[in-house]
Write a structure and sequence with these properties.
This protein has 127 residues and is mainly alpha-helical. The chain has 7 helices and 2 strands; from the N terminus they run H-H-H-E-H-H-E-H-H. It has helices at residues 2-5, 16-20, 25-33, 57-64, 76-86, 91-100, 106-123; strands spanning 54-55, 87-88. The protein has a two-stranded antiparallel sheet. The two termini are 21 Å apart.
Length: 127
């Protein structure tokens, strides 16, 4: 869809792994593409999933229904009492986070590589 809406010269294809990898080459390529002044790549990470508490099924349901926005209206003392019902942690969640760092299965990686190669053919080389 992007190719239909934007001219090729307005698109930059960047491999995320190279953007966050040890080399800052991709980061500087993005800055150059956007005509921004060169600067060091940010070192801190924001919105890290591992640092978040997991919603309980009750809180997930409230969030999905849009009820979580009313949380600020609940008095602080009551919120503190309800917190154990809203969030939980445990071995299952820790295992899920650990599995997210595992390599992708080879068949899936192969399909992604094929799709990515098609994008590169259409958009040009990566930076």
């Amino acid at each position: 869809p992007y190719l239909e809406r934007f001219a090729r010269e307005r698109l930059l294809l960047v491999d995320f792994a190279s953007l966050i990898g040890p080399s800052e080459r991709s980061w500087h390529g993005v800055l150059e593409f956007l005509n921004l002044t060169p600067m060091p790549r940010p070192a801190e990470a924001h919105n890290v999933t591992a640092d978040k508490r997991r919603f309980s099924p009750l809180m997930r349901r409230a969030y999905d229904l849009g009820l979580a926005r009313f949380e600020k209206r609940i008095p602080g003392g009551v919120r503190k009492l309800l917190r154990p019902l809203a969030f939980r942690s445990g071995a299952g969640y820790d295992a899920l986070l650990k599995s997210a760092k595992a390599p992708l299965p080879v068949p899936l990686q192969t399909r992604l590589d094929e799709h990515f190669e098609d994008l590169v053919r259409q958009l040009g080389p990566l930076r």
